[in-house]
Predict the 3D structure of the following.
Amino acid sequence: GHKISDSHNTPLPYDLLLTDMQMPEMDGYTLTRTLREQGCTIPIIALTAHAMEEDRVKCIEVGCDDYISKPVNKRQLLTLCANWLGRKSDATVQQASVSCV
């Protein structure tokens, strides 16, 4: 797999990062905080089963740009990605370079 930190060396650098906030070893909060500290500026969207307002705030505070709670509605997720990528349609989002961590 490709590392997000190496994306600037690839022909198609990542445009967007979707990260689950509850992952083993390094959770999404640590991942996001680490990437931001390293100067990563791509949009980061948090995916989490926790839907309370304080969970959304915690995601934003560590550096996520947006947040969506599980279970994720596919159309809602594509619309959210399209908004961050500046795209107009679902088709262009599917063709974009997206990293799922």
